[in-house]
Design goal:
InterPro entries: Arg_succ_lyase_C, Argininosuccinate_lyase, Fumarase/histidase_N, Fumarate_lyase_CS, Fumarate_lyase_fam, Fumarate_lyase_N, L-Aspartase-like
Number of strands: 6
Protein name: Argininosuccinate lyase
Distance between the termini: 61 Å
Catalytic activity: 2-(N(omega)-L-arginino)succinate = fumarate + L-arginine
Pfam families: ASL_C2, Lyase_1
Order of helices and strands: HHHHHHHEEHEHEHHEHHEHHHHHHH
Helix content: 55-70%
Bound molecules: arginine
Largest sheet: 2 strands, antiparallel
Number of domains: 3
Keywords: Amino-acid biosynthesis, Arginine biosynthesis, Cytoplasm, Lyase
CATH architecture of the largest domain: Up-down Bundle
CATH class of the largest domain: Mainly Alpha
């Protein structure tokens, strides 16, 4: 019945049951209970300090809310669909418990600024958590990069063998991506970490509230500057979803490589059994389920970003009920990103590296052809001419089914008189890797110093 509703005053007919269910958000926003209670306690203390409600009421409110918190955490709280959302579920319970005083809590506040506050409080902690998970994965990558500094693999472009690289260099590329992801999360946190409470429904409030005091209690370094924007802004959530989408894109690329590398054609790595499953029909199979699933889950995170962007598109100021649709994409993204990062860190830590196989593959596909060209340049040939010479040598090798490293000095000299005996040492995969001794290059010394810098957080 309308009479049960906190907003029932102006209504004469009860809410249709299905409408009630359709419009409720308690099914998913109960996750915000802790933030809601924390925010309400701060608000109540401010109301008391400002003399807007009596201090005795504040004490009752705080005590009542703490009891409700315990009840929820003990699983003893009955969430009611009729009470629509977490805010009204808690407030109604508080009033049922302590009466009059409970009914004073919502003075100078609206659910519109309340929900904005709760989401910001929630997301703020989750971002800190995600940054920690990113650190764990980065740490696992650094561990593998350090342990496998001798491993040389083929580097690819177009998924064709291009040039030999250190396997550690490849891993460090992901360290770069994940470090940027962490930076994006931290940057987004600055805009999440602003107090919206005090905006009221949309225009502010007639009570002499102290927003700075609420901000201080809740550890917000700043307060929002415009009440309309405070209740209608979800940019901070969109930024988080965008940062998460990029993060998942990185994990999907890594997943793809892990899947490829663990095929019997590549055999570069072996994922430990715990991260794979078998096939119900093919006894030989060991499927890389975890990276496949992370690759797949990237789709839902992109979907969540698109969902919220579309919810927010064209919404007139200020709050609109559409915005209740912000929570599920947000929560789902948080769960997906945390789960993916956690499982990835464990998987990387346990991954076995087949250094020999990688080393062999690094020598295929004329991977040191560029080194021959560079060699000729050092002997005085312009690069374009050197490129041409090596191209011809490669064609000759293809024709005769041999590798570039199989050519004799006499054969080399068919292509260029500048080739000498020192060619052979210049075109091993080790020489190729170590010759790339520039900042950001794959030479061992460079990779080692990059790993060190990452360890020191530089
Ligand atoms: N459950 C609502 C939401 O998540 C809370 C804010 C409702 N405000 C309102 N005026 N109906 O957005």
């Amino acid at each position: 019945m309308s009479k049960d509703k906190l907003w029932g005053g102006r209504f004469t007919q009860p809410t249709d049951k299905f409408v009630e269910e359709f419009t409720a958000s308690i099914q998913f926003d109960k996750r915000l209970y802790h933030q809601d209670i924390r925010g309400s306690i701060a608000h109540a203390r401010m109301l008391g300090k400002q003399g807007i409600i009596p201090m005795e009421d504040v004490e009752q409110i705080v005590h009542g809310l703490q009891q409700i918190l315990q009840q929820i955490e003990a699983g003893e709280f009955d969430f009611s669909i009729a009470l629509e959302d977490i805010h009204m579920n808690i407030e109604a319970r508080l009033s049922a418990k302590i009466g009059e005083a409970g009914k004073r809590l919502h003075t100078g506040r609206s659910r519109n600024d309340q929900v904005a506050l709760d989401i910001r409080l929630y997301l703020r902690d989750e971002i800190v958590d995600i940054a920690t998970y990113l650190d764990l994965l980065i740490d696992a990558l650094l561990g593998q990069a350090e342990a496998n500094l001798d491993v040389i693999m083929p580097g690819f472009t177009h998924l064709q063998t291009a040039q030999p690289i250190l396997f550690s260099h490849h891993l460090m590329a992901y360290v770069e991506m994940l470090t940027r992801d962490k930076g994006r999360m931290e940057d987004c946190l600055k805009r999440v970490n602003v107090l919206p409470l005090g905006a009221g429904a949309l225009a502010g409030t007639t009570f002499p509230i102290d927003r700075e005091y609420v901000a201080e209690q809740l550890n917000f370094p700043a307060i929002t500057r415009n009440s309309l924007d405070s209740v209608s802004d979800r940019d901070f959530a969109l930024e988080f979803l965008a940062a998460s989408s990029i993060l998942m894109m990185h994990l999907s690329r890594f997943s793809e490589e892990l899947i490829l590398w663990s095929t019997s054609e590549f055999r570069f790595i072996e994922l430990s059994d715990g991260f794979c499953t078998g096939s119900s029909i093919m006894p030989q199979k060991k499927n890389p389920d975890v990276p496949e699933l992370v690759r797949g889950k990237t789709g839902r995170v992109y979907g969540n970003l698109m969902a919220l962007l579309t919810v927010m598109k064209s919404l007139p100021l200020a709050y609109n009920k559409d915005m209740q649709e912000d929570k599920e994409p947000l929560f789902d993204t948080i769960d997906t990103v945390k789960g993916s990062l956690k499982i990835f860190a464990d998987m990387i830590r346990e991954m076995r590296i087949n250094g020999e196989t990688m080393r062999r593959a690094a020598g295929y596909g004329f991977s040191t052809a560029t080194d021959v060209a560079d060699y000729l340049v050092r002997k005085g040939l312009p690069f374009r001419d050197a490129h041409e010479v090596v191209g011809k040598a490669v064609a000759y090798c293809v024709e005769n089914e041999m590798d570039i490293t199989d050519l004799s000095l006499a054969e080399w000299q068919l292509f260029s008189a500048k080739v000498d005996n020192d060619i052979f040492a210049a075109i091993t995969v080790e020489a190729s890797v170590n010759a790339r001794n520039v900042p950001g290059g794959t030479a061992r010394a460079r990779v080692e110093s990059e790993i060190r810098a990452a360890r020191e957080g530089k």
